[in-house]
Amino acid sequence: MTQPKIFGIAGWKNSGKTGLMVRLVSEMTRRGCVVSTVKHAHHDFDIDKVGADSYRHREAGAHEVTIVSSTRFAIMHELRGAPEPSFEEVLARLAPCDLVLIEGYKREPIPKIEARRLESANRQPLAPIDPHIVAIAADHPVTDTDLPVFDLDDTATIADFVEKVTGLRG
């Protein structure tokens, strides 16, 4: 496989980013793409349950803990005070794929769609200050932009747009 295409979804908390990501992964996979995702969290997070063996390994000081089964594997890397890896370092660790969908990473210079919902915690538009936002997906009419505007739930049309922008398909 060649270098994967990269496309992001940005937006404020409760703007519909995760729902759109999940629907896009399903749609792109249905279309035959191998899709990976990267989600940026702005807080301490844990994918391990307290008391699990892997949790105990990390708590004991392991640098990386890998959990492997017949259905999946996960590698947790403890930073232990080291800086957060750069966006490029994270991408470099991914297995080969056709498309990487990015949730978060508002400041990265990648093409992205801005998710907007009326119930969003913050309704300040990102598009006017981010030249890498190439479209808006909203659950309400948006008239203050020259960018393409999609219904937040129109996954097939948004997927077509992602394919066009990234050059994934004709």
List keywords for this structure.
170 residues, alpha/beta, two-stranded antiparallel ribbon, 8 strands
Mind explaining what this structure looks like?
By secondary structure, the protein is of the alpha/beta class. Helix content is 23%, strand content 24%. The strands form 2 sheets. The protein has a 6-stranded parallel beta sheet, with helices on one face. The chain has a two-stranded antiparallel ribbon with strand order 3-4. Strand 3 and strand 4 form a beta hairpin. The relative contact order is 0.26. The model has no long low-confidence stretch (mean pLDDT 91). Residues 6-139 form the Molybdopterin-guanine dinucleotide biosynthesis protein B (MobB) domain.
Please give a quick description of this structure.
The protein has 170 residues and is α/β, with parallel strands linked by helices. It has four helices and eight strands; from the N terminus they run βαβαββαββββα.
Broad structural category: alpha/beta
Work out the helix count: 4
* Poorly predicted tracts of residues: none
Widest sheet, order of strands: 2-5-1-6-7-8
Organism: Sinorhizobium psoraleae
InterPro entries: MGD_biosynthesis_adapter, MobB_dom, P-loop_NTPase
Protein name: Molybdopterin-guanine dinucleotide biosynthesis protein B
Domain Molybdopterin-guanine dinucleotide biosynthesis protein B (MobB): 6-139
